[in-house]
Amino acid sequence: MIGSLDITISALYILGIVLVGLWAGIRHQSKTKNKTNAAGEYFLAGKTLRWPMIGLALFATNISCVHLVSLAQSGFDTGLLNGNFEWMASFTLILLSLFFVPFYIKSGVATLPDFLEKRYDRSSRDWLAIVSVVSAVIIHISFSLLAGGIVLQTLFGVDMYTSVIIISILTAIYTVVGGLTAVVVTESIQTIVLLSGAVIMSVVAYNKMGGWEPMVEVLKNSGQMDKLSMMRPHGDSSGIPWYSIFLGYPVLGIWYWCADQTIVQRVLGAKDENHARVGPLFCGFIKILPVFIFVLPGLFAYTLSKSGHLDISALTNVQAGKEVVNSKGIYTLMIIQLIPKGLIGVLVAALLSGLMSQISGALNSISTMVSYDIYKRYKPDATDKSLVKTGKISAGVAMILSLLLLPLLNSYESIFNGLNDIIAHIAPPITCVFLLGVFWSKASAQSSKLTLWIGSAIGVAVFTVSKLYPDTLIGHVPFMMMAFYLFCVCVLLQVSFSYIYPVRHTAESENLYWKSPFESFKTPGWSGIGNYKLLSIVLLLIMSALFWIFR
């Protein structure tokens, strides 16, 4: 339990974010209320976003309470291994900047399902809209609420559902009222607060351990030196050997960073193509930090517990005569035992930043897709006012559904693994149709539709079998490799169907694929250090060096 000072700091932070969100959204709307494109102003901030805000907002939408809590948990359980998910993201952000952004900006779309219609057909758009809304509810909101609820319950002694309902309502208020402008402004603030809180935890844990060498010594003595390695051998108990990272992650990462509305909506609101390209690269550089400020504290917690500097008895129980640590609460335990009073409030504010930014970003994306991709389908003459109203209602409904899913998702032993397990079965067909659509001229509309339908059905079937019958062959396949296998099936499906049903390009779709990958680099970009080509090369070299060091 935390003291009144820290509770006051946390409460003032929540109040401040809500007020800033309302102010930013209402101010933007008052400036644009007489403009003809009211819906575009609400959902895409009138396409005025610059690269720093895009990069910060991308990071804030990605990093939630799930990451602060579950990456620390994974650091405690398996060491630096799950840091792969953070560093591999930089490579997919380079792909987003170089190869996907130009088409998204050129086509002038408001949503990614809208892009699929322009490249393929209406059926592909409809299917992606439905899947994207469902995945946003489950992945971006429900899992974040679950992680946040666990932390708030431990810190404040408040019932998990009560605390997340209050936070959800407050976040929904400024998101629904202010639209994307409110979301991006608050996300930029929340990113800074979140990073500050995470850095404080890393520094405190590092100092408590006495530095890097004492941690390594504890790992040597306990026979756990593999916790410092991010590249594990075949047969590793984690189920994530090195090759699964390079085969499976791109399937998850391309869907998440390049084809998921909740993430890419910030790019769609960019002022121009250069801002849209540099924003993701800026986020790619920020993604270097999570391994050191989210995962590493969990590893320090492990060595601190082994050396007697962190009491984890509250998380320990006996099962079948053996002591088992429920590591879900390790981050909260570190806050209570390691952080001085006054700074605890800052750490809680950081956790709330992650929770609120994730929820607000997802709600805004859901409202955009429901309005443009579903409602406008049946009401093509809908006014901007009715589109905005529909978006606001859909955001409220999505919030309620997310809360109802919490008991089901809480059954996962690891929040982070549970999150990626679901993504591994959703992502393959979507990654497939986007990749082939952008890089292969022969990818046809009919093949896209059938691949999305059949690929999604296979993913659901495999997921169901693996959960109902975990002892079968399917149940033993690690989720990263399952993502790769499902992706291969989807590619085979789409290529086959593209030859059975040959492509018939429209005047629009003819301009929405690369005739050659090198065509992407013809846009000169800004001069100097801000050039997207230079930044891509620098980021690529830095990430390659980091993987080599921590291999």
Automatic annotation (TrEMBL):
Coiled coil: none
Keywords: Membrane, Transmembrane, Transmembrane helix
Gene3D superfamilies given in the database record: Sodium/glucose cotransporter
Main subcellular location of this protein, as a coarse class: membrane
Cell compartments where the protein resides: Membrane
NCBIfam families cross-referenced by the UniProt entry: sss
Similarity comment: Belongs to the sodium:solute symporter (SSF) (TC 2.A.21) family.
Protein name (Swiss-Prot/TrEMBL): Sodium:solute symporter
Lineage, uppermost ranks: Bacteria, Pseudomonadati, Bacteroidota, Sphingobacteriia, Sphingobacteriales
